[in-house]
Amino acid sequence: MSKTLYDKIWDEHLVHEQDDGTSLLYVDRHLVHEVTSPQAFEGLRNSKRQVRQPNLTLAVADHNVPTSDRSKGIADVESKLQVETLEKNCKEFGIKLFGMNDKRQGIVHIIGPEQGFTQPGSIIVCGDSHTATHGAFGSLAFGIGTSEVEHVLATQTLVQKKSKNFRIKVDGELSIGVTSKDVILQIIGKIGTAGGTGYVIEYAGSLISSLSVEQRMTICNMTIEGGARAGLIEPDQKIFDYLKDRPMSPKKDDWNKALDYWSKLKSDNEAKFDKEITLEGKDIMPMVTWGTSPQDVISIDEKIPNPESETDEDRKNSIERSLKYMGLKPGTAIKDVKIDKVFIGSCTNGRIEDLRDAAKIIRNKKVAQHVYAMVVPGSGLVKQQAEQEGLDKVFKESGFDWREPGCSMCLAMNSDKLKPEERCASTSNRNFEGRQGRGGRTHLVSPGMAAAAAISGSLDDVRKYQS
Amino acid sequence: MQKFKTIKSIPAYLSIVNIDTDMIIPKQFLKTIKRTGLGKNLFYEMRYNEKGNPIEDFILNTKPFNKSKILIAGKNFGCGSSREHAPWALLDFGITCVISSSYADIFYNNCFKNGILPIILPDTKIKELSDYSKRKEEITVNLEEQKITYGNNETTFEIDQFKKKCLLEGLDDIALSLEKNPKISEFEKKLVANKPWILND
Ligand code: SF4
């Protein structure tokens, strides 16, 4: 029978299946961070259990770490305790950790691929919903809860039921100024935040294969914003080239064996998908969110919608609530919306290509007077690379703050946050109420669009600044 | 895990759709290294003003809903972050059953690991049940019979039988999986032979 890539990875990892379909799957790679793991390690200790395969887990502190000078440690007592607890737990259970001052430290979904820990055809989990990012490598990667983190540590397996198959094809080419961030925002706008619930999405089509590895990660990263369990893309030569010689990639003979296996990872031609949609590259514009859910998205040329024209009662109420929170009026051109802050970073858009994209726009220009703008590289290695290329200077000269790596204002768990009613153009993935700080107002955009907004001081069209 | 018993309670109704886990428990409370103590911060930003004082008309701040064991909410409940702090906060507040027309996947699974029953019902039934919240009348949730009783009415709900058993018996997932140890070892042996790079660092 013909199978999808998801079906194949699933079958390859099946340790046991009950009559009702409840399955025990083997986990190849497990990523751990400080926020969702302390209770899991505590659980292990309480029940006197061991970590079954310490080598298959990699830990890093990212959510809580300060992005300013780190030489003085973490000022916040609770954050400090959480980071120290991770260090203690990793030591006790023999797990490899990139500590706060390790130059390889960074956002968990950035360091996995960077180190070659992320590999095609494998099952990768992490106590974090954006684990979907790793699907860009043709792996089945998804977020789990803390109880499941404990389960993986103890058994190297996970109890799961199979999801359905959903294929999203994007054909054609990206227009100038349009990025993979705009592609995924448009997809979420189309299917809604629950449109993928119960599914694993495979992204396919000529536009998807034309994307770089990093651009693919941006797409898979936000799959969870469409409610799907995971998102993946068939691995190709670009992926293999990317992984070659990374510190944790297979070596020598193992590399050849792995490559042989990876090259066969694809959905069969006849494979059946339970749901399928197609998008055309030429219809995708630079996008921006106006509301408090990633599905509240329009192109930069559009106006903020009017709840009165909605027939669905729930939708109408939700638009009203969003507009009130965001302090916006229906019918306003989104380009006329003034901003206070700009955040470039996160596991969605904190990689080197993202920084290059933004730097290209900002070069020789200035951040608007009233705007505070910051760049938070996704990892220590991204930061180092950017500095080698002189991007830090480009940003600093134009008035951007250049920070240390971490999650930072993507979720505002450290001191980087919005004040009530402050408005931010952000390259992160969630515009939920309070996500970037209580009362803060988030507009999700691509790195180029964030740079354009920084210059203009209001949401703006990146194409205006493209030479 | 506590065994799930039949519950009788006046339900609290939150008509908002797409309630995300950032709303259920905002990030400043994720710095804890414990599972308990989060109940007082459940729905923090809707429940307390900027000074930290309770917002009087928020449903969970008012009697009798401050004692509700059942929460009824709009569709796509629990979307967003995977934080298990969301079910921990609900549980710590005293809520052991959520009723909605749909849930985000990770949240839904997390509930079962903590003895919380997430029930899926069609919108029409949600409307009927929410009336009982407005009228402050009790409803009864019986998992064994997969049945909700309200006034003289009754409705049934679907649930995965294995998940039901785990809730009713308060089973520990990890212990169950550890019983499969021989199968896991066998799997790993094959892994070493067929995909050596997985276990070889
Ligand atoms: S950058 Fe944001 S979305 Fe990504 S892992 Fe960190 S907090 Fe989560």
How does this model look, in words?
The complex is a heterodimer of chains A (467) and B (201). Chain A has 467 residues and is of the alpha/beta class. Chain A is 33% helix and 17% strand. Chain A has 16 helices and 19 strands. Chain A has a five-stranded parallel beta sheet, with helices on both faces. Chain A has a five-stranded parallel beta sheet with strand order 17-16-15-18-19. Chain A has a four-stranded parallel beta sheet with strand order 11-10-9-12. The longest helix of chain A has 17 residues, at 77-93. The mean pLDDT of chain A is 96. By secondary structure, chain B is α/β, with parallel strands linked by helices. Chain B has one domain: Aconitase, domain 4 (Alpha-Beta Barrel). Chain B has helices at residues 21-24, 44-47, 85-93, 105-112, 123-134, 161-169, 173-178, 181-194, 196-199; strands at 7-9, 12-14, 70-73, 97-100, 117-120, 139-142, 147-150, 153-156. In chain B, the strands form two sheets. A four-stranded antiparallel beta sheet of chain B has the order 1-6-7-8, covered by helices on one side. In chain B, strands 2-3-4-5 form a four-stranded parallel beta sheet. In chain B, a hairpin with a 4-residue loop joins strand 6 (139-142) and strand 7. Chain B is globular and about 65 Å long. The structure holds iron/sulfur cluster. Iron/sulfur cluster (SF4) binds at residues 62-63, 107-109, 128, 130, 346-347, 407, 410-411, 428-429 of chain A.
